[in-house]
């Protein structure tokens, strides 16, 4: 029970962080483009916690399986003033409309009650109508202004503050920023690991020794420089590993340098069968170093390596070399995260970085409801010279989302069978 709880907590922290930075990428680029962002949410379902800062409500929701940034114009603006509708207008000192009150007008003693004749809250920013049942007036709506519904304020979004009003380049960067934030997060995490733990180097030096390995028993120590093995000069760690693996159970004469003095140590690698092959092992890890530039380089190398591996895996899935039941969903990731967490914080950080790359790549796939699907429609718009009809695009994304949810159910069922049944 305790292990299960730790796995769940580890999963929520790691996956929540990945989603947070992904959505933060969308949020920052959207705000930079001048888009009104109504909500920044981590999770789905009922709100657990929320607060408002400036124009945006920041929320944590019950189900930690994703997140979203709700931008003006992306969802249909549900409030629309119609001819004949009676509303209350709150005016500022210059006579401009600050708030349009739809109900509970009695809460505001100085309100102007208006029967709407015409309203344009996207381009013209005005409301015309009759006050006192007879007098026709035109009211200018200021920016920002708000609807008040059930005593809750909802900011009015003029067209120039909506997602669709922005240039193709601004919209593209806003959507692309989420996956790019995941790649950047992975790079930063790998760099931090290098700075704190060190990074492996291909030098002929003995790294950390296991407690009961042949190297420790023979008298080797961490930091020993290996000059030669059985008279053959060693230039890299890779050469040391290959030599040891090739001589299971055979005594090897190590010529080493320690504290400026050369000495000879005999080590007999333990024979171990791995995937049907018998190899030699002496219980030594690769040497590690710490430096800022080295950590940055290692971070770039790790990010590139895991990006390539994940893309290769997706290619194998598409070509049928990788079976669907080998995929893992939230349950499988949670179980794996719990197991990795038991190995230590650095392993958990590396696992999180790999998951972040995976999240970035998956979101770039040209599938409906994913960021890649949105980018595909932008590419079509660039070719056609005009955007695809919003209703048609929305239907495609809706169908795509339903299919993704179906896939999620299948994968989750596979995880449950694999780990619990």
Q: What structural category characterises the helix and strand content?
A: alpha+beta
The termini sit apart by: 17 Å
Instruction: Work out the helix count.
Output: 9
Question: Strands of the biggest beta sheet: in what spatial order?
Answer: 3-4-7-6-5
- Residue-averaged pLDDT: 88
Approximate strand percentage: 25-35%
Low-pLDDT segments: none
Helical coverage, percent range = 40-55%
H/E order of the elements?
HEEEEEEEEHEHEEHEEEEEHHHHH
The main pleated sheet reads as: 5 strands, mixed, barrel
Indicate the radius of gyration in whole angstroms. Answer: 31 Å
Number of strands: 16
Write down the overall geometry: elongated
Subcellular location: Membrane
Cofactor: Zn(2+)
Family: Belongs to the peptidase M50B family.
Keywords: Hydrolase, Membrane, Metal-binding, Metalloprotease, Protease, Transmembrane, Transmembrane helix, Zinc
Structural overview:
With 421 residues, the protein is α+β, with helices and mostly antiparallel strands. Helix content is 42%, strand content 27%. The strands form five sheets. Strands 3-4-7-6-5 form a five-stranded mixed barrel. Strands 11-10-12-13 form a four-stranded antiparallel sheet. Helix 2 (168-196) runs antiparallel to helix 8 (371-384). The chain is elongated and about 105 Å long. InterPro entries: PDZ (IPR001478), PDZ_6 (IPR041489), PDZ_sf (IPR036034), Pept_M50_Zn (IPR004387), Peptidase_M50 (IPR008915). This is Zinc metalloprotease. Its cofactor is Zn(2+). It is a multi-pass membrane protein.
């Amino acid at each position: 029970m305790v292990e299960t709880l730790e796995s769940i907590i580890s999963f929520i922290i790691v996956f929540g962080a990945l989603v947070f930075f992904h959505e933060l990428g969308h949020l920052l680029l959207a705000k930079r483009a001048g888009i009104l962002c109504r909500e920044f949410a981590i999770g789905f379902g009922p709100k657990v916690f929320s607060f408002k800062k400036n124009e945006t409500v920041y929320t944590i929701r019950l189900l930690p399986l994703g997140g979203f940034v709700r931008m003006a114009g992306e969802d249909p603006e549900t409030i629309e003033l119609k001819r004949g509708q009676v509303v209350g207008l709150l005016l500022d000192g210059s006579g401009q409309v600050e708030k349009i009150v739809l109900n509970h007008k009695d809460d505001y003693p100085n309100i102007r009650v208006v029967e709407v004749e015409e309203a344009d809250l996207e381009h013209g920013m005005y409301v015309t109508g009759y006050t006192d049942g007879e007098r026709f007036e035109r009211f200018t709506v200021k920016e920002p202004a708000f609807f008040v519904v059930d005593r809750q304020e909802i900011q009015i979004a003029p067209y120039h503050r909506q997602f669709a009003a922005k240039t193709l380049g601004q919209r593209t960067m806003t959507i692309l920023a989420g996956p790019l934030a995941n790649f950047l997060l992975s790079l930063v995490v790998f760099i931090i690991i290098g700075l704190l733990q060190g990074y492996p180097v291909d030098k002929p030096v003995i790294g950390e020794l296991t407690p009961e390995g042949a190297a420790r028993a023979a008298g080797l120590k961490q930091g020993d420089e290996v000059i030669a093995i059985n008279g053959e000069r060693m230039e890299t760690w890779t050469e040391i590993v290959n030599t040891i693996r090739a001589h299971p159970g055979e005594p090897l004469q190590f010529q080493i340098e320690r504290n400026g003095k050369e000495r000879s140590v005999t080590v007999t690698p333990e024979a171990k069968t791995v995937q049907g092959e018998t190899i030699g092992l002496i219980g030594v890890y690769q040497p590690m170093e710490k430096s800022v530039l080295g950590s940055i380089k290692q971070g770039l190398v790790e990010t590139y390596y895991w990006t390539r591996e994940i893309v290769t895996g997706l290619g194998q899935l598409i070509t049928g070399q990788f079976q669907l039941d080998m995929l893992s969903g939230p349950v499988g990731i949670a179980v794996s995260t719990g197991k990795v967490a038991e190995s230590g914080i650095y392993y958990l950080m590396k696992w999180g970085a790999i998951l972040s790359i995976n999240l970035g790549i998956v979101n770039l796939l040209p599938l409906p409801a994913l960021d890649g699907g949105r980018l595909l429609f932008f590419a079509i718009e660039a070719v056609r010279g005009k955007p695809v009809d919003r209703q048609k695009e929305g239907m495609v994304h809706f169908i795509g989302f339903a299919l993704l949810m179906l896939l999620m159910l299948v994968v989750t069922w596979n995880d449950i069978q694999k780990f619990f049944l």
